What does this fold into?
Amino acid sequence: DGRKPANPAFWWVNGEGEEVKLSFEELGSLSRKAANVLSEVCGLQRGDRVVAVLPRVPEWWLLNVACMRAGIVLIPGTSQLTAKDILYRLQASKAKCFVTDDERAPAVESVLAGSQFLKSKLIVGKGSRDGWLNFKKLL
It folds into this structure.
């Protein structure tokens, strides 16, 4: 029809060549779903805090947009944080939700006793873990 194809709103490629491309419509839809996960499933409200310790996977970016949509404060952390660093951030921020992947979840679990404000934990990955909600499945 002679029209130029739309540029993607999001284009992610990892070291193995795997890629994720999302149009503006897809990014909008997924970010609304992710915001609903945070607000409805995790029970977060505007102004609540979420700590995210993830490598730069597509879900990291989606979580950023979802938090902006829902008015939730995102506290990003490098994937190099130790359990002690994680505990400090949880206590100082009074975060109600923590988002991480399979690799970093044990560090979070090791300090849960010291985080009295944490209500929910989301894991980004294909597997499951006791006490964690699977972010991908909820989307």
